[in-house]
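Tokens as discussed.
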């Protein structure tokens, strides 16, 4: 569900069916440019030029810049954490399954592009706009919802005991980001690979101590 305070997106222009290849090219261009320059640093003209289409075509496919940003955020998260990442896979032990997701998520949020995007979204000018909420619902919220479904399947299998699944899902990803992600956002040196693995394992173990079926 979209936030009721968000401005309504401009509807896509009527006319011929949208060209799928052009839509994909626009989305790819938007992902590259938004990640590199942030929301305010990119114009629809730049996206059109990078995609090799007219600005009218960009508006025809996505309506406005905010809608295109949300679509790009969703596509970026789906590329880094595809839906298959959240399949239950009962053949894989629960701890190892959580570690697989933990490693993929941490790699995504700690990439230079994601850290730069995080800083941009926290700037005062953007923080007061609807853009951070649109980003949250298109990206992080999608990840949390998908993980919550995995938790529900593991609960049904008798491996977990969780009363508030959405809250537990949010807690899991907050644990994974932890201090290492905060250090990266503040510009500190990235932790070494062994430290990252220790951090992720400790986070998963803490989560399991709270929610694993006794």
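Sequence:
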């Amino acid at each position: 569900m979209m936030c009721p305070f968000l401005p309504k997106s401009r509807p896509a222009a009527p006319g011929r069916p949208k060209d799928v290849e052009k839509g994909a090219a626009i989305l790819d261009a938007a992902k590259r440019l938004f990640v590199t320059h942030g929301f305010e640093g990119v114009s629809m003209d730049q996206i059109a030029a990078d995609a090799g289409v007219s600005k009218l075509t960009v508006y025809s496919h996505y309506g406005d810049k905010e809608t295109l940003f949300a679509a790009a955020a969703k596509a970026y998260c789906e590329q880094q954490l595809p839906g298959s990442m959240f399949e239950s896979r009962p053949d894989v032990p629960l701890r190892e399954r959580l570690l697989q997701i933990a490693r993929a998520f941490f790699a995504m949020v700690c990439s230079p592009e994601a850290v730069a995007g995080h800083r941009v979204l926290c700037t005062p000018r953007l923080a007061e706009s609807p853009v951070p909420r649109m980003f949250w619902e298109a990206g992080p919220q999608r990840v949390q919802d998908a993980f919550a479904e995995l938790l529900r399947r593991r609960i049904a299998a008798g491996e977990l005991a969780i009363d508030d699944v959405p809250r537990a899902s949010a807690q899991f990803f907050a644990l994974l980001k932890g201090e290492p992600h905060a250090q990266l956002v503040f510009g500190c040196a990235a932790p070494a690979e062994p430290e990252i693995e220790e951090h992720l394992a400790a986070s998963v173990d803490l989560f399991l101590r709270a929610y694993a079926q006794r």
